[in-house]
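Replying to the earlier thread about multi-chain prediction with a worked example.

Input:
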Amino acid sequence: MTRKVTFKAGYAGAERDVTAEIHDLDATPWGLDAKLRVVGTDVPRVDGLAKSTGAARYTFDINRPRMAYAKELRCFRAHAKVASIDLSRAEKTAGVLAVEVLKQPGDRVTFAGDAVAAVCAESEDALDDALAAIDVKYEPLPVAVTTEDGMKPDAPQPDPKNGNVGEEKPNTKGDVEKAFAESDAVVEAEFRTQVQTHSALEPHGCVVEPNADGTFTVWASTQGTQAFQQTIAGALGVKPAQVRVISEHVGGGFGAKFGADAWDHVTARFAKKLGRPVKQLLDRRAEHLVAGNRPDSIQRLKLGAKKDGSFTAYSGEVFGTAGNGRGGAGAANTRIYRFPVYSMKQSSVATFTGQGRAFRAPGHPQGVFAEEGIVDLLAEKLGMDPLELRIRNDPHPIRQIQWKLGAEKIGWRENRRATPGSDKGPVKRGVGCAAGLWYQKGGGNFVVNVHVDRAGRVTVQNGVQDIGTGTRTVLAVLVAEELGIDPAAVDVQIGDTRFPPGPGSGGSMTAPSIGPAAREAGLRAREALIALVAQDAKCKTEEVDWGLKQLDGEPGGFVALKSKNYRWQAACALLGPEGLSVTGQRRDNYAGYHGETAGCQFAQVAVDVETGVVRVERVVAVHDAGRIVDALTARSQVNGGVIQGVSYALYEDRRLDRNLGDMVNPTFDTYRIAGIQDCPQIDVILTSLESGFNNAGMMGLGEPATVPTAGAVANAVANAIGARVTEIPMTPARVLAALRAKENVK
Amino acid sequence: MKAFTFVRPTTVAEAVQAAAEKGAVIKAGGIDLLDRMKERIEDADRVVWLGDVKELGISGALLGPEKDRVVLGATTTLAQIAASDEVRKYVPALAEAAGLAASPQIRARATIAGNLAQHTRCGYYRHASFPCWKRGDDACPVLADGAVQETAAILANRPCASAHPSSLAPVLAACSAEVGWFHPAVMANGRDTLVPGHGPITDLYDRSPQRGKPSDLAIDRGSMRGVIRTIEIPCPAGRRSAYEEVRQKAAFDWALVSCCVRVDMSGDKVSDAAVWLGSVAPTPWHAEAADKALVGKTLTDETIRAAADAAVVGATPLPGNAYKVDLVKVVVRRALERLRAMK
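Result:
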């Protein structure tokens, strides 16, 4: 059964009516002009106290009685054949419980960090001693670990069946050569980006505990509690239903933590074999080498325009390596602006390195860095303001508004250097901008349970995990909105496969996939309580008003017949001993307002042209994500995206020795990540809008927040110093080299 | 990390005796030592902790009886040095270097002796999976084409291109600090022991790195480790010192290059000078040509530029770190410009 509703969607100044056929049980969309009590306000994280006091338990914190420890022995050669493997000394090491060979003599290792054996022991110290006692002999083989080395015709191949270069069919529209020929201005440039590792604070891994009844309990640091259950069950040789996975708190994921990994399978096998709980979490070096990364890129781009700035044609060739497999690299660089004619070719190059994984907006930060760089170069050639050029070619109605908001906040006119590099003294300042987009509306028919007991306690349950993004708080806010109570009073229980399945936390889909179900469940609970109140007051349900005003200074409550007050507790006391259990479901998406969320960022930098050191002083980040449910948590998401983007632009880099293929900076003091003093002042502007896709008007925010940052910072550096750094991270060496190249041209 | 016995001496005599035993290492803050032990580039049977040795633990800095020198106990932390009124007044460059090092948490634990004794941060040295000349292999892989070279040495970088990471050592050397220590010796009966000694800080370090000897300290011999006891920094009237460094991050990062310039002024002329560099060579580097460019001169722009250029005389940068030559000139020039502005 469905009903037809029409509501105002979009953003003030760019709104329109959306008509949707919605499920009868679905909550009516709020619409753009809705006045909401909690949604959209600053709500502190419901788990903030637990996290800041250390009470929150992460997988890393789980220690069980009789627990043993597992660890893999890694080979740090990028390419070698295992000649022999001798476990005899390791097996005799005190405290060793089991040893497993993962690579047999004759097998190859094809990236530094590849596991060759595994040990399970009584203590971490015994584990260490046993790993050191395994004697593996290798025959070294030739390596190619950079994209360029992998592309050489005679390059060694991780998988000789396929060749190293996997060319995708070019993504084309129109006749590029003709369009370039008819352009008034054409620019060409090559941009390069590095390999960035996810570097979540909590490493990958799990604790597996066999139970007496043949089932297993698993604590996992994962972005997909349900996916982990499916995959670890395979390793344990049982049905998924016989495994309970718990991920109550997760210390970050960024896309690298879906499902059980090879090392988790090892943990599971040891636990099953020994009948004891076994724990294995990766160390930092392994995190960098084997647990995923953002592939690098070499992007050769060409962009043309008419005199008035309208883009005519865009073309490019992109290479990158996503490790020892052949796919997975590629830069997203044709989607933001109106390119009437384009041709973009992407090639993934296999190298002897650890495999890439999805990483916060896969392909986008690298694609945008290059695309926004060439847009700036074109503006320079046309003698146009780069912001004007962008506005002229930007098809997104919301970003048209965002450009103006951001430009005003950063002070584009005042702070943009008309003559780049003209500041007096060695420290030069400048501003730059870049855009981003994302396109996740969520979905998946997930179910949320809400239970209200006679004492008025509200519990929300779903299997979804909170990887630090605020999922728990968003669910509390939506249910609290519908019940007219304080979000802090809602107990959200998540990250457990005993609850109804939730979405994996990827694609910025978590909140929009689960939030609307929570809203619907909250609505069901409210309707049930209204019915009870009406019954008690002997009136019609339409004659019961709810939660709109505070009763006796307490939030929530109901008023029957405009006079009879039922405070929240009193209304809940009308429930039976079993309380009230309801569910809400995520319904299918409606035809929404716009399939893409918009965003743009502006950066102000200070560059010391004598040392080449870049400091990002300010970032203005303007983003939409449909309706913002919790403004505080949303700003925190954007802050995190900006900081990770600054870190990508200036610092992070997996440095491999090109001859040996091993990483020389696998520690946090040498793999540089922006620290507190490296963080700019961040002004977040959220253009909260009604997305029109679901009852809460939500879309995703996690990934888009990091997309434009590196591009904006690079453009600001160019404005500050009058030279363009086309490769990130923008290290002192690269900044000084760019300045020297400019001097040589003069 | 390999299992070890933890030894807690309470007197210098006990500490010296414990440190002289086979397989013993000494631990003060332990910041660098524990990193090496975790990476298993260093295994110890006995870890001798100096934290209970009161004679070593002068809390902060003291002025000498003649008020002509600052005395630091070996286990004085970097945080204490950065906050010390005496150090800030008499050896400002030392307070600056100590205050910039690492992170607040590390500065609260790291000691000055540990800072001087720390091993190179060279990523090749730090991970046993890489070959390393300092750890005894045939060649230094950093010198090969295709190696990661940005942070490597630009001076005296063959046969080993590791860069010495201490940012306090150049300051102490430029300021003619003297170090008191215990160094290994063999007794008449043939047994090993540690005996007291002292000398200019320049004597603390090996003249050049030695294959198979990770420590850069001359007072560490074979498997025997010396123990640093005190550091004394003379501070005569008319002395000025400044510390400068370049690092990529503002928060917790290693200097790409660092320098300390110390000048003794006689009127507006430099009567004596010392220019020392950090993170540019396998040991703290004395840019003697820069000293010579300064002595007898007034600090004009021209003198300063000449000294900055002289600081990198003899540099042999690798393809991946030529930019460090430019950075050295910048830090030396900036330090001198600050010294000129001091009264």
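Chain A has a mean pLDDT of 96.

Feel free to reuse this layout for your own posts.
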